[in-house]
Amino acid sequence: MAEEKNQNYEILSESYEQEMLAKKKAAKKGVRGETPAKLTMNSLMDILTILLVFLLKSYSTDAVNVTPSSDLDIPKGKTMLTPEQTVVITVSKSAILVDNNMALGVKDGKVDGAQKRPPEDGYFIIPLNKMLVDAIEKQRRIAAVNPSAGKSLGIATIIMDADTPFRLLTEVMYTASQAEFSKFKFLVIADATEGQG
What we know:
With 197 residues, the protein is of the alpha/beta class. The chain has 2 domains: 50 residues, no CATH class; 115 residues, no CATH class. Helices cover 39% and strands 14% of the residues. Helix 4 crosses helix 5. It starts with a helix and ends in a 7-residue tail after the last strand. The relative contact order is 0.14. The model has no long low-confidence stretch (mean pLDDT 79).
């Protein structure tokens, strides 16, 4: 019986540990040297996530981007303040935009009476109000996730042509106030001639 038990065990050589270490080293060298490293799906998703965060952070350096056009002559001023990230209402000679999305057209400094709540000579502009309600709801959803974004809730920045009639500006501000915008900021361009002379 004792002989049968001894037959079940292999006799290890004295250099067994050295042989095993040599095999491991050879295996590691073979993996490193012969087969190229492969990117797994997790690695690719990590890379894409990092790129997305980087692009979102660097997407805009300014809170307000103004596209020059012959339809929009922005007044000049002496202010040195940096604009905040708010809802932007642009009133040009031919259109009213909310965050660069067309709300409605303007002709001769007036909004078509059919676009207003009756009576046609009223101050409430229906398409503009719809877009502003959507914009403030978007601001609320962002503020729920990011409390620091809540400080601009209910603030609108108005970019308007220098020749915008006061009546049209009043209609825009009244409509925005009905959509729960309570503060307005007006964007002007810094006067380059200031300090010269």
